């Protein structure tokens, strides 16, 4: 916008200066008694200056409009649209009766690869197949060939590295960096009725991102060259940004795959630990010791299930905790409840996405509370139910594990107990900055209240 005002101001200043000069000249002619015809000639010159100034101002404003519109289109360019096709079409729409060829620089092969051609016809395609052995968009030129070509012509600037739109004085021979005989390139020019040719590279911060060539029909001129140059500079920056975005996406994809692999291996290791504990418990005769092994086995499995969901998920940061609760409680129910007819399991949960830093300790807390109800709430084959709820309440999340069993002992403080399971629950509750509440009014009900971390 500043450049727009600057250019308009420069034109207006020049216009005012000329206007003053011609006005003074007219006044002098009036003093000298010049004829009406002479005065009309001067006034016509003044009118021409005014009209020229208006046209120049309109042209600048229109150019800025095109540049601004193109910049916004590049910013909002959908991932499905190839940026080289976009550039070729944009220039093709701007420059009538032209052929536009846009190429990219391929760093691994150190070559220029033609990506998009606008304005091509069947005859040109046939010539490309006959001379080059490939289609127009399959043409590949080693970057080194351009250096070799321009080294032999020291008086000419290396077009593709300049970033400035230059006329190809040697026509197609120069476009192909001397890799085709001059007789062949001249024959193609005559066959296709080609006239002036212009070319340059998409250069930004000293790095080459591709090339663009403009082929005009014979007798046609490149109008508004300043706008074309500005667009090419804009395209160079856009390609640079697009490639940077692609590199970031690639790095993120690699990181995602690495994290998935880590979660997969952690899950496998935890399952191995769980299996080893299971095998070891089979050789233990003491029931108390065997229960300790089984509890440790279930803890390992509860963490393994979390990592399994993470490596299968598209979101490596959050996990659907509602679905996790359904799976874990079902698994514990099958393992710990010998007779499903005596104890009913009710699960009422919302599908809540929870951060991985919260979900691992939360999974262990859930495992301990559900295991405690299944093991101790219904002694001597008593019947009842265990219910697990997960709901949002205001800006917090509430996880509740309740049962209508014999109830939590009145003389036992759940926050100060020798039970390893409850010690683990209290420590993990503090880890996620939560609050653990106990209700003994109807059986036992533990409610864990915590905030969702951003």
Automatic annotation (TrEMBL):
Protein name: Sensor histidine kinase
Gene Ontology MF terms: kinase activity
InterPro entries, A to Z: HATPase_C_sf (IPR036890), HATPase_dom (IPR003594), His_kinase_dom (IPR005467), Sig_transdc_His_kin_sub2_dim/P (IPR011495)
Highest taxon, organism lineage: Archaea
Keywords associated with the record: Coiled coil, Kinase, Transferase
PANTHER family listed in its UniProt record: SENSOR HISTIDINE KINASE, SENSOR HISTIDINE KINASE PDTAS
SMART domains registered for this protein in UniProt: HATPase_c
Keyword check for Kinase: yes
Domain Histidine kinase: 261-454
Recorded coiled-coil stretches: 234-261
SUPFAM superfamilies reported for this sequence: ATPase domain of HSP90 chaperone/DNA topoisomerase II/histidine kinase
Gene3D superfamilies the record matches: Histidine kinase-like ATPase, C-terminal domain (3.30.565.10), PAS domain (3.30.450.20)
């Amino acid at each position: 916008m500043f450049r727009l005002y600057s250019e308009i101001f420069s034109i207006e200043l020049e216009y005012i200066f000329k206007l003053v000069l011609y006005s003074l000249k007219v006044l002098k002619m009036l003093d000298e008694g010049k004829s009406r015809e002479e005065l009309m000639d001067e006034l016509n010159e003044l009118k021409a200056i005014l009209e020229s100034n208006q046209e120049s101002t309109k042209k600048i404003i229109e150019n800025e409009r095109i540049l601004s519109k193109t910049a916004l289109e590049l910013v909002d360019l959908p991932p499905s649209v190839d940026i080289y096709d976009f550039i070729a079409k944009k220039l093709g729409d701007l420059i009538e009766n032209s052929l536009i060829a846009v190429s990219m620089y391929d760093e691994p092969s150190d070559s220029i690869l033609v990506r998009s051609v606008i304005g091509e016809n069947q005859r040109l395609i046939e010539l490309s197949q006959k001379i080059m052995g490939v289609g127009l968009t399959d043409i590949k030129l080693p970057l080194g060939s351009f250096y070799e070509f321009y080294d032999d012509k020291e008086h000419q600037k290396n077009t593709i590295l300049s970033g400035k739109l230059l006329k190809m004085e040697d026509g197609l021979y120069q476009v192909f960096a001397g890799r085709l005989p001059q007789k062949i390139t001249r024959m193609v020019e005559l066959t296709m009725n080609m006239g002036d040719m212009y070319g340059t590279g998409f250069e930004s911060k000293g790095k080459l991102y591709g090339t663009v060539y403009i082929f005009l029909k014979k007798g046609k001129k490149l109008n508004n060259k300043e706008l074309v140059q500005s667009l090419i500079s804009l395209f160079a920056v856009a390609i640079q940004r697009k490639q940077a975005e692609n590199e970031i996406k690639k790095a993120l994809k690699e990181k995602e795959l690495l994290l998935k692999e880590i979660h997969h291996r952690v899950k496998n290791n935890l399952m191995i630990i769980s299996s080893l504990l299971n095998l070891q418990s089979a050789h233990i005769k003491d029931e108390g010791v065997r229960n300790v092994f089984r509890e440790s086995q279930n803890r390992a499995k509860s963490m393994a299930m979390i990592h399994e969901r993470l490596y299968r998920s598209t979101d490596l940061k959050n996990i659907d905790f509602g679905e996790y609760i359904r799976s874990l409680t079902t698994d514990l129910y099958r393992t710990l409840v010998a007779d499903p007819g005596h104890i009913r399991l009710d699960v009422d949960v919302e599908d809540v996405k929870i951060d991985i830093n919260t979900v691992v300790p939360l999974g262990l807390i859930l495992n301990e509370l559900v295991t405690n109800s299944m093991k101790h709430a219904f002694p001597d084959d008593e019947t009842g139910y265990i219910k697990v709820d997960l709901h949002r309440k205001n800006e917090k999340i509430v996880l509740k594990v309740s049962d209508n069993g014999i109830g939590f002992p009145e003389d036992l403080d759940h926050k100060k107990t020798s039970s390893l399971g409850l010690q683990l629950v209290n420590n993990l509750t503090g880890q996620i900055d939560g609050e653990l509440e106990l209700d003994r009014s109807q059986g036992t009900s533990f409610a864990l209240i915590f905030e969702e971390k951003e």
